[in-house]
Design brief:
Blueprint lengths: L2 H19 L7 H4 L11 H8 L4 H13 L5 H14 L3 H9 L3 H6 L6 H15 L3 H9 L3 H10 L3 H15 L3 H9 L16 H16 L4
Helix pairs in contact: 1-3, 4-5, 5-8, 8-11, 10-11, 11-13
Length: 220
């Protein structure tokens, strides 16, 4: 049985037993399972499966299919990208990107001829890796950091540069392996003079400020 549906069935049985024995018992799933994350309640994919709707994983794959489709307009692709970005704001969904095979096609969009597509791809990467070590590992593994550095410093579109900087800033914080690759791919004149601690936000901010200043010169 699907794990989500199993969870829903288990809660239903337990809640039924509780209310049978005590009519005043709470039907709040969080009171039955205090170890569940606050505000999450029942597994949303289980509820969607019960109601016959698509799971978040299916919606993510559908969004990426739309993003890559040669038959859709740019406007429709922007809608798909916006939906995708909202879905991966949830850490579980961001972590599922690897098993769903979505990191590589997302990386491909960094090289799209359309600036809006590059912008959204960088934005989604920044959202996925923010405070998420597992996704930071994937960003490093797919070798997206050198591409993001190039976009941040050289892309002719200011919004693309901004989102690339956002993705880099989120990707290197508290994750030393990504920070090392980031520094290695900076032009020599932009590299920090000493060692930067990925866990020191002031040091990371100082490095990123240098990148922001260099990026802003592209607009002048």
């Amino acid at each position: 049985m699907d794990p989500g549906m199993n969870q829903l069935l288990k809660w239903s049985i337990e809640n039924s037993d509780a209310t049978r024995n005590d009519p005043t018992a709470s039907t709040d799933p969080k009171s039955e399972r205090p170890d569940w994350p606050s505000g999450r309640g029942l597994n949303q994919e289980a509820i969607q499966s019960l109601m016959g709707g698509p799971s978040d994983a299916e919606l993510m794959k559908q969004s990426m299919d739309a993003i890559r489709s040669p038959d859709l307009s740019l406007d429709n692709k922007m809608v798909a990208f916006d939906n995708f970005e909202q879905l991966i704001e949830m850490v579980d969904n961001a972590n599922n990107m690897e098993s769903l095979g979505l990191w590589t096609p997302l990386k491909e969009q960094l090289g799209n001829n359309e600036a809006d597509m590059r912008r959204m791809a960088a934005w989604c990467m920044g959202t996925a890796v923010q405070n998420n070590t597992k996704s930071q590992e994937r960003l490093l593994a797919i070798d997206a950091i050198p591409i993001l550095v190039k976009l941040a410093l050289e892309d002719p579109n200011e919004q693309v540069r901004r989102k690339a900087i956002y993705a880099l800033s989120s990707g290197i914080r508290n994750y030393s392996p990504a920070l090392r690759v980031f520094v290695q791919n900076l032009p020599e004149e932009l590299r920090p003079g000493g060692t930067v601690d990925a866990g020191d936000m002031d040091q990371v901010d100082t490095v990123m400020d240098v990148i922001k200043k260099a990026s802003s010169k592209m607009a002048s």
